[in-house]
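In the current project phase, the collection of sequences with tokenised folds has grown. A sample record is quoted in full directly below:
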Amino acid sequence: MDNTKLISIATNAVLLAGKKLLQTYNEEIIINSSKGKDIKLQADIESEKIILNLLQKETNIPILSEEEGFLNYDKNNCNRWIVDPLDGSLNFSKNIPLNCISIGLWKNNIPIFGVIYNFLHDDIYIGEVGVGATLNGKKISVSSIDDLSKSILCTGFPVYSSFDTDTLTDFVINIQEYKKIRLLGSAALSLCFVACGSVEGYQENDIAIWDVAAGIALVLAAGGKVDFSFGNKENLLNVFASNGLIG
């Protein structure tokens, strides 16, 4: 099955899940657990179920998803879907309109394409590495700003972040040269904004791979640069994505 068909399947999945999340957003939001810095919503589970059912029905590609973990493992298939059924769960629970659904396809730990749906604004981002990126069907690309003092950086503090003094001091030192810093509460949307040129960079350490898999592909497809390495725990990444001109 070629990438065009797979992108179409992923697009259908996010649209179906987005419809369900819109209904939930206008009804009672059920919090299943809230421990430490993390929160789990019933909406995550319901969205994920819709996505997984469609991906499993239409493809035989293994899936890594936030709630269910690794499904359909096949040592002979080096492809894998990486799914975040609701990125920005805390935002969603507090009626902060910065959330999305994220589906990426990776092969041997290399991003192939990503589909991200900002369902509250009906914005769909699609990016295929080496081909290009779009927002609602219109081509997008990273910004041309090459001066750090004129650049905006999106960042955040993931669930597994350390909040000790040394870590926070390093964080402040790292962001001092930028014009502005934005913490949106959604890594996937932050990467969307890098891809469409609204911001110049995104950086987070120990961020879950499902939060960024589709967004990394999107930034690369839009002409940007992404450096990532695997973190200290399974499925965590250290990521710096940019327009390729600021670092």
User: Anything to note?
Assistant: The domain at 3-140 is CATH 3.30.540.10 (Fructose-1,6-Bisphosphatase; Chain A, domain 1). The chain has two domains: 3-140, 148-242.
